[in-house]
Amino acid sequence: MYFNFNYLVFMLPAIIITLIVQLRLKSTYNKFSKIRNSRGITGAQAAQEALRNAGVYNVRIEQTSGNLTDHFSPNENVIRLSKDVYEGTTIAAIGIACHEVGHAIQYDREYAPIKLRNMLIPVTNIGSKLGLILIVLGIIFANTFYFSETLFLIGIILYSLVVVLQLVTLPVEFNASKRAMESIRSSGMLRDDECVGARKVLSAAALTYVAALISSIMTLLYYVALANRRRR
Length: 232
What we know:
Elements: H1 5-32, H2 43-54, E1 60-64, E2 71-73, E3 78-82, H3 83-86, H4 91-108, H5 112-140, H6 148-187, H7 192-231
Parallel strand pairs: 1-3
Antiparallel strand pairs: 2-3
Helix pairs in contact: 1-7, 2-4, 2-6, 4-6, 4-7, 5-6, 6-7
């Protein structure tokens, strides 16, 4: 009911940006996932070296299924790397593996933004779903029940938690990439020209979080504009 032409007008810029970012990520990853690093080390070896250089010794490194499914699990203290990254000796594999190490270091150093992000995740998961439900109910019962506008506004406030979470996620991701590049350079895992490639891969990946934030902001703005029209 609430998906209409006005919604498309709000979301079209976000959709275009997301497509461009995804194409850039795919192109950049494909390029540097075919270039072998000069040392011939694998992503798993790079991750282990980065952890050792950071003085983090309680994190395991495991291989996981899928493509670009790499992640750090703080509850288990495990870095899981996809096969192409775990076994790969490419520039992209080194960059991605060290990025996940960056997250592990954040937890070890008690990096404030990631602690805030973890506090927000459960609240956001509930709030965003409940928010959309209240927004839909507010539209369905518009001009029928006097409290429909209140439901709608509460829904918007709850959905705004998504934007807050993604705002907090940005410094977390950028900082993990920064830690990754510092580790790569200080340990000499990659040559200077190879570091440029690794940075391009991580920068392209980071832009996906920017695109997600823009999409959420545009969705929120649409709901706010809809609420303003309802008051008129």
